[in-house]
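Hey L., structure's done. Input below.
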Amino acid sequence: MYFGLSEDQIFFQENVSKFLEDQSNLDVIRKITEGEANEIQQEIHDGLLNLGLSSLLIPEQYGGLGLDLLFATAVSQSLGEGLGPIPFAGSYIMAPLAIMHGGNKEQKNNYLIKMSENSMRIGVGFSEYIGARDNANISINDNKISGRALFVIDAKDASHLMFSDKNGMIGIVESSSSGIEITELVAVDKTRNFLEVQLKDVDIDILELTSTSKEAIDKSIDAGRIILAADSLGASQALIDKAVEYSKERKQFNRVIGSFQAVKHMCAEMAADLEPCYALVWHAAHCFDNSPDESRLMACHAKSHVSEVSKTIGKKATEVHGGMGFTDLMGVHYWFKRIGVNRQTLGAPEVIREEAARIQNF
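Output:
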């Protein structure tokens, strides 16, 4: 039995890859990370939005494409492989899903239509629910929110921000509201952004259904984890391709290093480790929409396993490049850092494995 992407999903994926290849090469990424190409980054963002990235999961009745998570997963692979310097997992996956599963009719009409029209973008801060840090907590009372949220995903330039308390209650605030102070964190992966947000008695629109059910936040986080796993999958494939290409060109002792057995073994091990991850991530995305009993567990498995595999691939790919792998010239570090950030976002492997054990009553 073959389990993989459909022709439509592959076509969508290839369009994203081709766009990034044409518009966002390594030189452009280098300028973006140095803060010298904000206009170019916005053009890349706008170009990808024209392909429909902002409305992938939004139902057609709200102006979206109404596709499933497997489509979004295919896109995320391309973004990871091409170092897509845009918001995605938070703004275009987690936020709409939380509203779709947790909002009332008025909230869905208010938010989803505007999101599909690209007139609204929402950053996501669920760190309080997943695992709050010291001196960082969120409290929601009487339609007011206060506290401090760390690692808010895709919050930069977002018109609205979505937060959750430790009980899974979700609400949305306007970024321009008084009582909000935003601090940009020192980024490891400078192709994306994570912010710290301080809130003091800010008006919040609470998603109606989350007060009695955690389905909205659980579905949102599961989807985010699968999307990040797919992003790491694409980044890992890019590193393998770069390592193989480099090993065919770099010479030592008048021989290309790819002819050395040790280098052959490293490249083969990376490919062998990554190949099963494709089916794992695709199956997790399929379960999200078609097998609710398996969905949460598969999301945990996909995120935790791919995080470990991609970390190892990042290390080996850098080693294949030798001393050059640590330089800015080769650009290997952009994918290496992206994988590292994906590994920790929405729960490190250790945290997610504990969650998987609880799901199975261990």
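Residues 215-249 form the longest helix (35 residues). The chain has three domains: 7-115, 120-211, 215-359.

-- N.
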